[in-house]
Amino acid sequence: MVTQDSKCSGFLGTIEAFQLMEKNVVAVIGPQSSGIGHVISHVVNELHVPLLSFAATDPTLSASEYPYFLRTTISDYFQMNAVASIVDYYQWKRVTAIFVDDDYGRGGVLALGDALAAKRAKISYKAAIPPNSNLDVINDVLFRANMMESRVMVVHANPDTGMRIFSVANKLQMMTSGYVWIVTDWLAAVLGSSASRDIKDMSDIQGLIVLRQHTPESDAKNKFISKWNSLARSRNINSGLNSYGFYAYDTVWTVARAIDQFLNSGQQINFSTDPTLYDSNGSTMHLSTLKLFDGGEQMLRQLLLTNFTGVTGPVQYDSDRNLVRPAYDILNIGGSGSRFIGYWSNHSGLSVAAPEILYQKQPNTSTSAQQLYNVVWPGGSTTTPRGWVFPNNGQPLRVGVPIKSSFKELVSGKGPDNVRGYCIDIFNAAAKLLPYPVTYQFVTIGDGTRNPIYIDIIRRVAANSLDAAVGDFAIVRNGTQLAEYTQPYIESGLVIVAPVKKATRSAWAFLKPFTLEMWCVTGALFILVGIVVWLLEHRINEEFRGPPRRQITTIFWFSFSTMFYSHKHRKRAWAVCVDNMVVRCADHHFKLYC
């Protein structure tokens, strides 16, 4: 085994790769960073030497571009899907991505954007930090990120820059209540490898949600940890063992098994000269010493057929050259350590049951099946933050409102700050239902004495002088060619509006069909009839004679009785003869009076 140290430098990694290839190697284990992995992959592709990396998690290191690259750890593609599942679980819609601006950071954030889009969320702001930045540069980047509306921060960085981010964030009061920090597995690796943790560093990261590659408990894992601890004590090694150490151990066994299978199949380890590599005149790079591994393709095939159980669990590759059963532990930093709040796997999403148990069941990624334990958020709060605030530098939407002289119940106002009406209430209610902040200001159009031209308002929206318009707009053909309308929220047509009063039960309910004036006129008519009948009957009908009091009583009684029943006795009604006209009397006799 030949070792080379690139010291996390892309330039040194390239030089070390060339020096390593001069020694006719059949496989390369490493590097520990995605950036150097991109560089070395070009070298091994040319020389047909398989490259196995237990730490290069950048998903853009794909087999289609680098056929001899094999990732022996979990790709960040799955880690960003885990982050997206957490964001969706708490119903946040926008996040701020804070990352180191290199191959590792850009590749991870690209995968994060795709994963969030599948959950109908998005990255609202990308805070890129140049590699090896000092505290002042980080302070400027975080200050701009803090001006945005999202309070959900996803940090994807390397250990050195990452710890500076939290130190600066703490000084900017960004580790207080209302903020959410989701950190990828680099922080779990730092905490796992640190035997004695700095109390100050732990105070900077309270309330964080951290992902860590899941390695199931097993006897092989426990034995390896025991051997490592014994070795660390005997050699005074202060570094602990993290999940990347487990994957490095399994990577060595993967290469050893593949070489053994390669030799047992009768293959020979031979190298040949690459005709495309030669030294130009005066060159001292000695490119001609680099040899092609003739059995590289067969060795790669043996590596892809790997199938054994290591300290990290099943070591096997799918058709996309990814490890099968990717899973993550989800931790919550608190006090001097961390506590477990759940798992994520691409089989069943978020759960509190171990992935190796769920893999034995049918996959269930429905929303109702997702589950996590309670989280203590930054600031010590146990209430889930809403994940956003109104931005400090955002421009409010300009919403046009027509002010007219008619139908003021729908929309009216005397200025931008005094706009009201049914349409305005609908707009305000819809804005409150949005899962993210939207600031807006009303722009009144019209003086209230004459109706403004509505198509002109729509043209202003199309011309970007207004962002939207609210009012009793009718959907017309000319308008649909300029702007988009919402769904109608008022049904068109003619309606009758009548006041509704609550009816009360009363014995006088029979009087309600007519007004008081109508009842007075009706009563007067009955009395008039009674008087007319009295005038006609009192001379010949004894019932209408007698003292004045009796006659008045008879008149009123006759008037009242005619309302309820008809009289059975005859009444003699005489008509007045005018100009010798013969009239028919009530008793069916014809008489003539002149």
From TrEMBL:
InterPro entries: ANF_lig-bd_rcpt, GABAb_receptor_plant_PBP1, GPCR_3, Ionotropic_Glu_rcpt, Iontro_rcpt_C, Peripla_BP_I. CDD domains: PBP1_GABAb_receptor_plant. The chain crosses the membrane at residues 516-536. It is found in: Membrane. SUPFAM superfamilies: Periplasmic binding protein-like I, Periplasmic binding protein-like II. Keywords: Glycoprotein, Ion channel, Ion transport, Ligand-gated ion channel, Membrane, Receptor, Transmembrane, Transmembrane helix, Transport. GO terms for biological process: monoatomic ion transmembrane transport. It comes from the Eukaryota. The keyword Protein biosynthesis does not apply. This is Ionotropic glutamate receptor C-terminal domain-containing protein. It comes from Urochloa decumbens.
